[in-house]
Amino acid sequence: MNDGPVSTFQFLGLTFSTANVVSGLVVFLLVVAVIFFTSRNLAMKPTKGQNFLEWLIDFTNGILKGSIPAKEVGGFGLYGFTLFLFLFLSNQLGLFIQLATSGGATIVRSPTSDPIVTLTFSLMTLMLAQFAGVRKLGYKTHFANYMKPFVFWLPISIFEEFTNFLTLGLRIFGVIFSGEMLLKLIWELAISHGIATMVVAVPIEMIWQGFSAFLGAIQAFVFVTLSSVYISQKLEVEE
Amino acid sequence: MLSHLVVGQGLYYGDSIFYAVCFLLLMWIIKVLAWKPVTKMMQDRADKISNDIDSAEKSRNDAAELVQKRQAALASSRSEAQTIVNDAKANGQQQREQIVTQAQADVQTLKQNAQKDIEQERQDALSNARNDVADLSIEIASKIIQRELKADDQKALIDSYIEGLGKQHES
């Protein structure tokens, strides 16, 4: 959450938020750890870790196959898989660990509770969709799609790209941000009047945490689903 | 709180680049560590399963073919055995008949020979006896008539006499 003082630093003339960089690194390491420990000792007969990994790969491939034709999925499988794993762990991170400096600036929280992060992923998806469209259909056919069903549709098509970019990024941000915000508010309520409010608020906090974990999983799923929809839209010639 | 959303004030573009780089790096790491080996393993498994199904189908067909062959072989060997037994029976029958015929022929020959021999013996004995009787008769007659009779001159006479004797005996 970003309502307190924000710790930032400058690097190569760009401003970085400490919280985002640290949380991002934590999620990065978590993903690498999950992948590393589940992919040891790969065998024809899968064991525990491999089973999980294969299930996850099948799951994300299943999401992609929902909208992208099966023979085109191969190239996007890795993207969908990485995206899902990264977003899922990002969404969950802030629910369990929230660290702040003594000055009150948050250091570790869900990276996805910052719009710049979610919009980065959103932009990445839409750029990938454009790239895939151009690669498959060629520049001419790809950009001709913006003028379907008729030429005057062009502004709407461009505007649609922009709204896709915003909605894809802000949806997940809104859910995760509000989830963490509410967690923090409930916690403040819990400690406001000693034991009496604590008894009432802690169960609510736990329930909300569970619900947020569920929402985080759903949002990661939705993000990958919509990504595959946007990509698939660019892979076909509009009528 | 929403100061981030005010463009130009709180959006840290550095973060955007940081996350993009992180994500690409992560994609590469996942590709090397897990994606390639796992998808390869999954593909291998799918291939193996389909191969196993194919080979199972093949070996089932082979087994069925083998059973058919074996049954055919069994039937043919059965009929062969039947033929052998029949041949043996026919041979035995033939041989038996041959032996019996041979034996009958042998017996016939033996019997004829024996009859011939008997006839011969009888003839011999008869002629010997006739000669002896002739000699004796001549000796007796020469003694009686005190004179030397020439045996050869009287032989025809004596023979006819004995012939008459023999005929009297036979009748």
Automatic annotation (TrEMBL), chain A:
Residue intervals passing through the bilayer: 12-38, 76-96, 116-138, 150-173, 185-204, 211-231
GO BP terms: proton motive force-driven plasma membrane ATP synthesis
Topology in membrane: Multi-pass membrane protein
Keywords: ATP synthesis, Cell membrane, CF(0), Hydrogen ion transport, Ion transport, Membrane, Transmembrane, Transmembrane helix, Transport
A Gene Ontology cellular-component term: proton-transporting ATP synthase complex
GO MF term list: proton-transporting ATP synthase activity, rotational mechanism
Classification via SUPFAM superfamilies: F1F0 ATP synthase subunit A (SSF81336)
Keyword NADP among UniProt keywords: no
Localisation per UniProt entry: Cell membrane; Membrane
Pfam family, one: ATP-synt_A
Record carries keyword Transmembrane helix: yes
Assembly notes: F-type ATPases have 2 components, CF(1) - the catalytic core - and CF(0) - the membrane proton channel. CF(1) has five subunits: alpha(3), beta(3), gamma(1), delta(1), epsilon(1). CF(0) has three main subunits: a(1), b(2) and c(9-12). The alpha and beta chains form an alternating ring which encloses part of the gamma chain. CF(1) is attached to CF(0) by a central stalk formed by the gamma and epsilon chains, while a peripheral stalk is formed by the delta and b chains.
PANTHER family found in the cross-reference section: ATP SYNTHASE SUBUNIT A, CHLOROPLASTIC (PTHR42823:SF3)
Protein name listed in UniProt: ATP synthase subunit a
Automatic annotation (TrEMBL), chain B:
Keyword field contains Transmembrane helix: yes
Membrane topology type: Single-pass membrane protein
InterPro entries named in the record: ATP_synth_B-like_membr_sf, ATP_synth_b/b'su_bac/chlpt, ATP_synth_F0_bsu_bac, ATP_synthase_B_chain
Keyword annotations: ATP synthesis, Cell membrane, CF(0), Hydrogen ion transport, Ion transport, Membrane, Transmembrane, Transmembrane helix, Transport
Pfam families per the UniProt record, alphabetical: ATP-synt_B (PF00430)
Record GO terms (molecular function): proton-transporting ATP synthase activity, rotational mechanism; proton-transporting ATPase activity, rotational mechanism
Gene Ontology cellular component annotations, sorted alphabetically: endomembrane system; plasma membrane; proton-transporting ATP synthase complex
Compartments in which it is found: Cell membrane; Endomembrane system
rRNA-binding among keywords: no
Broad class of where this protein is predominantly found: membrane
Residues passing through the membrane, by range: 16-35
Subunit structure: F-type ATPases have 2 components, F(1) - the catalytic core - and F(0) - the membrane proton channel. F(1) has five subunits: alpha(3), beta(3), gamma(1), delta(1), epsilon(1). F(0) has three main subunits: a(1), b(2) and c(10-14). The alpha and beta chains form an alternating ring which encloses part of the gamma chain. F(1) is attached to F(0) by a central stalk formed by the gamma and epsilon chains, while a peripheral stalk is formed by the delta and b chains.
Main function: F(1)F(0) ATP synthase produces ATP from ADP in the presence of a proton or sodium gradient. F-type ATPases consist of two structural domains, F(1) containing the extramembraneous catalytic core and F(0) containing the membrane proton channel, linked together by a central stalk and a peripheral stalk. During catalysis, ATP synthesis in the catalytic domain of F(1) is coupled via a rotary mechanism of the central stalk subunits to proton translocation. Component of the F(0) channel, it forms part of the peripheral stalk, linking F(1) to F(0).
Record-stated family: Belongs to the ATPase B chain family.
Name the record gives this protein: ATP synthase subunit b
Organism: Levilactobacillus brevis ATCC 14869 = DSM 20054
Taxonomic lineage of the native organism: Bacteria, Bacillati, Bacillota, Bacilli, Lactobacillales
